[in-house]
Amino acid sequence: MPGRPAPSRRTVLRSAALTPVAGLGLAACSPGEDGAAPARPTGPVDLGADGEVATGAAKLYRDANVVVSRAEDGSLKAFSTVCTHARCPINKLEGTKLVCPCHGSEFDARTGEVLHAPASVPLMELSVEVKRGRIIASPDI
User: Fold this and answer.
1) pTM for the model
2) Carries keyword Membrane (predicted)?
């Protein structure tokens, strides 16, 4: 355009390099609506009444990003439901199988182990106990 200086090579290259990065926050695999990674428990979290998790079953606590399962012997296990692949919050529990909405990774809610890639690292285990009839989970394990 006449009267307007041409952009420098540096400006063109910088713009080209930054363009893909700017779009990453809007991708369907984005960790959260605002681009931030979902929160993991940083201290003890009261999840609910002890009776909410049946023997041999699991319960997903979406707001806390935690899943709790109860073994046949009555013992509890808890895991963070922040996917280890792309840090997306897992929001779907099918029986005792967690399914990540971002890329389809699947985890066993009883063990935290990966059942289906692309995730290759198990979910982070949390300590869990029952206090005064309430399930309390904490990252202090």
Assistant:
1) 0.72
2) no
